[in-house]
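A further point concerns the way the authors explain their paired sequence and structure data. An entry of this sort, consisting of the sequence and the corresponding backbone structure tokens, reads as follows:
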Amino acid sequence: MRKRFGQHFLEPAWAEKVVQAIDPAPTDHFVEIGPGPGALTLRLAPKVDRLTAIEVDRDLASTLERSAPPNTSIITGDVLEEDLSRFAAQGPLRIAGNLPYNVSSPILFKLLRLAQANRDVVDATLMLQFEVAERLVAPVGTHEYGVLTILIRLHADVTRLLTLPPGAFRPPPKVRSAVVRLTFRPPPMPIVDEALFERLVRALFTQRRKMLLNSLRPLATTMNVDPGSALAAAGIDPRRRPETLQLTELARLTEALASGAG
């Protein structure tokens, strides 16, 4: 194991539980992120049609390649640099993996972009640091609710499936983990400009402790829009705080900004 990759490997009993949570079907095509020595790979492969595993550690990838069944391909590389759309082009695609704690957010956003561009990406069942999973399932109005929650939920339904103690891995990490499923779908409401929606969310939550009138002001000013007018057009009380906003309200506020709130 190479410590620089932040790898912690699943114990066999827990690997069985995770595969059950993934719920594979015989016709499925999977991409697995970070297979390590193959605790999930070797249990998942017999239950699916095809499996492609992407491992950044070349020694682990080489070892896994020697034990992988015929329906499994091992790619040595960084998932953040791989073109995953080529797999989605082959038909419905499911994703699984144990995401390294230090790069979980970039990988989540990469999977989100992949699903936006390829409707054949069905879901992603992922092991994450417990705190990251908490952010993904956070209710509106909580401290955990923020940029990651909103941008993921715009394109996916999120379900927590399992919580894993440190002892589920070797060596045991200092944190708990959780397994979540992201089931990808179109946004639940029309978004007039998704790039602006993301700019808005990031701008508001940079100043999440302020009232909306103040946290919106920097972005609105760059767009030559009065923040109070934008909030009024969206029907939102300017005294509220960013973490109280539902997706539908953020969509209305995006539309108000895009129209110049006029």
Q: What stands out?
A: Residues 1-5 have pLDDT under 50 and may be disordered. The CA atoms of residues 167 and 173 lie 8 Å apart.
